[in-house]
């Protein structure tokens, strides 16, 4: 005998009904008797009609801002993706809204508005990633129950383009650096090691070995979580020794603290001039 809203799976009766927000709910009764399942279904429908509290209703008052804050503190700020640059736009659009009120159409409209502002497809996808990750993280921690972002497709990104400079072009690029010692050193390192920008800019001098038969830079953790050593060419060793931070600062590229072009902030340079 078939009863509407009840179906069997593996011999166990499941019920299907709509909650107060119109979302379809599927629930196992743990019973094999369709008649008992029918009674449970009737009870659930009665709870929905009377507006009584049950599992799916406890998330109705959760603000999206709460989920975003939880995601950021527990996960987002610990990633290497620097998502903090993207949070203001997301907060401005969704922070004060109830998480339950955010529909796929709202997410789609948000991404389209970013495209109208001429954001690159890769950047638009980062905003989608934050939204999707926030909901998924909340579901995993039992702080929410649905993710409206999953049905919204990612934007198609253009294929990557590899550009290989000739020796003459690379020399011209270095000459264009002028007296910018830091930029020149970075370009030489990037060009001779093939390392990512984030891998080079975060390095400490304790991770750099310039002496000995095998000069190298040690990277404790790469994108795939593994360490690696980057052999250094003789020109890279020369450029590293010329850096104002060499012998004076913890970091190879310590932002403006060792940059001679920033007066009043060049602490390492001031130390060097006193010797």
How would you describe the overall organization of this protein?
The protein has helices at 34-50, 64-74, 87-94, 104-116, 121-140, 167-175, 181-193, 197-201, 234-242, 267-274, and strands at 6-9, 12-18, 24-31, 208-209, 216-219, 228-231. The chain is α+β, with helices and mostly antiparallel strands and 275 residues long. It folds into 3 domains: 6-58; 64-140; 167-274, hpI Integrase, Chain A. The strands form 2 sheets. The chain has a 3-stranded antiparallel beta sheet with strand order 1-2-3, covered by helices on one side. Strands 4-5-6 form a 3-stranded antiparallel beta sheet, with no helix packed on it. Helix 2 crosses helix 5 (121-140) and helix 4 packs antiparallel against helix 5 (121-140). The longest helix has 20 residues, at 121-140. The termini are far apart.
């Amino acid at each position: 005998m078939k009863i509407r809203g009840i179906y069997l799976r593996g011999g166990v009766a499941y019920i299907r009904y709509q909650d107060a927000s119109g979302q379809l709910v599927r629930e196992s009764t743990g019973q094999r008797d369709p008649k008992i399942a029918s009674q449970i279904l009737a009870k659930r429908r009665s709870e929905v009609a009377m507006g009584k509290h049950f599992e799916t209703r406890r998330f109705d008052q959760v603000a999206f801002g709460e989920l975003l804050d939880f995601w950021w503190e527990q996960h987002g700020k610990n990633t290497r993706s620097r998502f903090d640059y993207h949070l203001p736009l997301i907060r401005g659009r969704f922070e004060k809204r109830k998480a339950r009120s955010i529909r796929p159409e709202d997410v789609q409209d948000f991404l389209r508005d970013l495209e109208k502002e001429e954001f690159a497809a890769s950047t638009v996808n980062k905003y989608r990633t934050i939204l999707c990750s926030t909901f998924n993280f909340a579901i995993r921690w039992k702080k929410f129950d649905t993710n409206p972002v999953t049905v919204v497709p990612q934007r198609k990104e253009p294929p990557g383009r590899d550009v290989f400079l000739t020796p003459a072009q690379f020399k011209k690029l270095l000459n264009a650096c002028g007296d910018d010692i830091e930029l020149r050193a970075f370009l030489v390192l990037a060009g001779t090691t093939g390392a990512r920008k984030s891998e080079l800019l975060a390095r400490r001098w304790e991770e750099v070995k310039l002496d000995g038969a095998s000069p190298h830079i040690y990277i404790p953790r790469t994108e795939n979580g593994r360490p690696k050593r980057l052999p250094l060419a003789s020109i890279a060793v020369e450029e590293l020794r010329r850096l104002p931070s060499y012998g004076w600062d913890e970091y190879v590229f310590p932002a403006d603290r060792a940059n001679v072009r920033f007066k009043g902030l060049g602490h390492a340079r001031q130390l060097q001039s006193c010797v």
